[in-house]
Here is the input.
Amino acid sequence: MGTEAGEIHRGLKGVYFDTSEASFIDGSLGKLLYRGYNIHDLAEQSTFEEVTYLLLYGHLPTERELETLDSSLRDNRGLPEEVVDIIRLIKNCHPMDVLRTGISALSAFDPEAEDKSIDATRRKGIRLTSQAVSIVTAHHRIRQGLEPVNADPSLNHAGNFLYMLTGQKPMDQETNLMDVDFILHSEHGSNASAFAARVTASTLSDLHSAVVTGVGTLKGPLHGGAAESVMKMAQDIGDPANAENYARTTIENGERIMGFGHRVYRAEDPRARHLRERARVLGEQKGEPHWFQILMSLQEVMKPYQNKGIYVNVDFFAGAVYHLLGIPEDLFIPIFALGRIPGWTLQCMEQYENNVLIRPLTQYTGEMDLEYIAIDKRE
Ligand code: ACO
Here is the structure.
């Protein structure tokens, strides 16, 4: 029996909990703006470094401002040896667990770890954006019995991610793909991980703690884990002709098709388009066009569900793109996290700037006023 009155919004669906200048989403039109700029313009014309600046400073940078941000990113591509040692100790964990632990460990070496001022939070966010790439790539090398690769100052952020992962200089097209992917993942309103990060910041805890919260929340298959699940699903389907049967059986069993549906979008996720065409081209170049064909068949057979507002989301084509770039499946969620650090940082800055403790209610539905019975009298 509940004793507290009040309307319940399970999953906080449709609830506004604060204002934000980070991103605008119109779910019915499939429109996404970062700080007022359309995601399509940013994906086609900008760079991840520029978008990071835009998110953290609120305006597009001049060349000089971009150079300053770029050099901060470059200066922080190394990791303290102690953090590399921790990565070695836990090398058999899932890369998201290693990322979460690595970020937590980095707070011990950050000179501003406890400084919650806006400027220090922004600086820490920039450092973490770089250092997180180093954690994920160092771990991937170490678990293969290889040594981490030092960053190459001639490469940009996305290029360094691929270089530090494989030890080989990426092709321009591969760097561009990763760059676009990081842009598309860098901010997305009050999604579960950003909200969780804000809850942590709202207790006036520090940025490292908030980013650790974000990483832990992103890990789940209903959020960041979808790209990994999409690729597994494509492997299960195996052939474009099997897509219809797969979709019908999955939905009849009450399960969900990964990479479809979104809490906010009731139209196609605007980020999906930038990966769809790139997945097709890359698939043909790599001699593996069937992944794209399987995904397109699935998209076709899911058309009837569009009247329920179920369309592809950003993760649908991301998995195929990563696979075609030769990236193993368990790195798909960490890649999402690497892109999202500027967004989490911005949202924590917003929280600190106008803080209120985030503390909703649950309506109690358990028993009331039970009699306490001593343990030796219980049956
Ligand atoms: N496949 C089949 N049916 C679906 C799907 C799907 N992927 N998504 C939603 N539905 C159905 C639900 O079963 C429900 O049907 P019903 O009304 O008959 O019960 C209806 O659509 C509405 O779904 P909700 O549960 O209200 O949607 P919600 O907002 O809670 O969930 C979510 C959104 C979690 C993303 C969901 O669509 C899902 O599980 N998708 C698959 C996982 C995925 O791709 N996640 C990535 C999201 S994007 C991101 O985090 C970057």
Remarks:
- The domain at 20-221+331-353 is CATH 1.10.580.10 (Citrate Synthase; domain 1).
